[in-house]
Amino acid sequence: MQRFLAVLFIISLSTANLFSQKTWVDKGISITQLDTLGDGYESLRGTFTIENSSIYEVMNLILDVDGYDWVEGESRSEMLLIDHHDSTFTFDFFVNVPWLFVKRTGRIKVDVHYKDETFYTGSTQIRNYNRNEDYDLVDFYSAQWKVQKHGANNVKVSYLGVYQDQKMVINLNSIVINKIRKRLNSTLYNLKVRASENANPVQSLVWPMEKANTRFKTEGNQ
After folding, report:
1. DSSP letter string over the chain?
2. Higher per-residue pLDDT: 2 or 47
3. What is the percentage of the chain residues whose pLDDT exceeds 90?
4. How many CB atoms lie within 10 A of CB 80?
5. What are the pLDDT digits (tens) for 90-132?
6. Which of 29, 205, 15 lies closest to 121 in space, CA to CA?
């Protein structure tokens, strides 16, 4: 099932305009709800342009998982392992939404690729590990960034995320997806502002200091 959803997720990147349901534009951020996945899943794509920045400035913010204070919502992330030689990093996320009776967690490995002045990321969910028992394991996680040089001093950013129906008291209906959309809009706007604050944008990728997590290394990717 996860492989099938991943294939649909990739297809949605190239056919998004054909299947788009609705688009909102706020503060220079365009959010489109896509109708490319089956029942129980919603997909949101965000696009925007950052002026007077660099692709490295943006990617360095995305790499700094422990510094995600620009991410809106009831969630937190913790970097576990960085392997800059393979251009990957692994992190845990925790989501606690009391009004939905939702406490979810997941462990994600992210691959970073570079080609033609563009950074791409892809995510792989790690399922078997000793997680915090106060949180339920999320059934499916998928998120992808595309950070592309746009003109001399601008950056075009695209984000595509899949959100799962909680299948609890309230499903992902229009009210819930609207709240998610607004928080995603705020998150992307915060990233846009943060990445444009530097008068002299950096021109190199700076990985956070490599972490040595004994517990994680012992568990491995079971």
Report:
1. -HHHHHHHHHHHHHHHHHHEEEEEEETTEEEEEE--S-TTEEEEEEEEEESS--HHHHHHHHH-GGG-TT--SSEEEEEEEEETTTTEEEEEEEEEEGGGTEEEEEEEEEEEEE-SSEEEEEEEEE--S---TTSEEPS--EEEEEEEEETTTEEEEEEEEEEE---SSS-S-HHHHHHHHHHHHHHHHHHHHHHT--SS---S--PPPPP--HHHHHH---
2. 47
3. 58
4. 21
5. 999 999 988 777 899 999 999 999 999 999 999 999 999 999 8
6. 205
Residue closest to 205 by CA, chosen among 85, 95, 103: 85
Cα–Cα distance, 106 to 154 (Å, whole number)? 33
The C-alpha atoms of residue 187 and residue 73 are separated, in whole angstroms, by 9
Phi/psi class of residue 203: alpha, beta or left (left: φ > 0; alpha: ψ in -120 to 50)? alpha
The pLDDT assigned to 151 comes to 93
Give pTM, 2 decimals: 0.82
Is pLDDT larger for residue 74 or for residue 160? 160
Q: Are strands 136-137 and 102-114 parallel, antiparallel or unpaired?
A: parallel
**So what's the pLDDT on residue 177?**
77
Amino acid at position 202, single letter = V
